[in-house]
Design a protein that fits this description.
Blueprint: H1 8-14, H2 19-45, H3 54-76, H4 84-96, H5 103-115, H6 123-128, H7 132-136, H8 147-165, H9 180-202, H10 206-233, E1 247-248, H11 253-259, H12 267-272, H13 281-288, H14 292-297, E2 300-301, H15 311-317, H16 322-327
Parallel strand pairs: 1-2
Length: 330
């Protein structure tokens, strides 16, 4: 299917890495985090009512924590740097490390997700269907969208993320022991935690760290990531490849920054051509659109909540599909 969608020479051009663009994205995310942390510090030393700004600060920081994990995802596919050790170091230590995520473990599961997308052997799919309560939270269309639903959605997001960040305990799916370069960068990541703890202690910044890093990481980022997961693979008919994954082409940049940073919402195209770096996905889509079959089948939304054809509209109208089939043992 992929070979018929795009000219090989064009694809080769789109696969070229431009590490400067990755570095710019990484630096941009950290600059936003730094600005938000400064704003958080100012709230602690100014008016007692300045805590009212904390939800905004948490949301901004959580959005960039999410963005850093998307850049780790790029490195997982080897798309950050051509130099392997640099790709592994930046992905493991600089991108995943601050969120306590091991890129090596993530890679093991994520590549299986690409190979077995939305099948029982897909670790992401299996984890979402792990128990009846979790499974029910991924079934669409929605029966309601009340405040109670969104509160349950938020709590479920946090619980799910804690499970996702753990090393998988099942011996049959546990990632291989880290050796060589993977072991070395993992050790550097652990060392970075010791250095951070020492710095926080010396400069008396533990309150800042807990309030403006841990709180958004635990209470806000999981919600954003769950919305992204739905935008990628759910509220779809699940009746064929093009009904299992979608592209979202945002009309509103704030939504894009919150829910699907760094073009991760071009998810159909990413699954079709995972060797294309994120900054070339828009160009890839323009080329794919020239294929009549692709243009007819591509599932496109123009936002998550804002737009004329949103993911939320799909959540209220599309499905159920293979989630219920899986539940029935099919």
């Amino acid at each position: 299917m992929r070979d018929q969608l795009i000219d090989p020479a064009t694809l080769k051009m789109l696969q070229r890495l431009d590490s400067r663009r990755f570095i710019a994205a990484l630096a941009g995310d950290y600059l936003v985090v730094a600005a938000a942390l400064v704003a958080g510090h100012l709230t602690l030393v100014s008016s007692p009512w300045s805590w009212l700004l904390w939800p905004v600060i948490w949301t901004v920081i959580a959005s960039r924590q999410h963005a850093l994990l998307i850049l780790m995802h790029e490195a997982t596919h080897g798309l950050a740097f051509n130099t392997k050790w640099l790709n592994e170091f930046v992905g493991e230590v600089i991108c995943g490390g601050p969120m306590t995520v091991s890129m090596t473990t993530y890679r093991y599961n994520h590549l299986a997700h690409h190979k077995w997308m939305n099948e029982p052997r897909d670790p992401d799919w299996a984890r979402k269907l792990a128990d009846a309560d979790e499974r029910a939270s991924w079934v669409y269309p929605l029966k309601d969208a009340t405040l109670g639903f969104w509160l349950r959605f938020w709590v479920r997001s946090i619980a799910y993320q804690f499970r996702s960040f753990k090393e998988i305990e099942n011996p049959e799916s546990k990632p291989p022991v880290k050796r060589g370069l993977a072991q070395r960068v993992s050790q550097i990541r652990l060392l970075s935690y010791l250095l951070l703890a020492a710095a926080l202690t010396v400069f008396g910044l533990w309150l800042h760290f807990l309030l403006f890093w841990v709180v958004p990481l635990v209470l806000v980022m999981p919600f954003l990531m769950r919305i992204r997961a739905i935008a990628e693979h759910f509220a779809l008919d699940q009746e064929g490849y093009y009904d299992e994954v979608r592209n979202v082409k945002f009309r509103h940049p704030i939504e894009k920054a919150l829910f699907t940073p760094h073009y991760i919402a071009m998810h159909l195209d990413h699954h079709l051509f995972a060797s294309v770096p994120f900054y070339r996905l828009p160009a890839l889509n323009r080329h794919l659109q020239q294929n009549a079959d692709y243009a007819r089948k591509e599932h496109i939304n123009d936002g998550v909540f804002l737009g004329k054809n949103t993911v939320f509209a799909d959540m209220r109208t599309r499905g159920p599909g293979r989630v219920l089939e899986y539940d029935a043992g099919v």
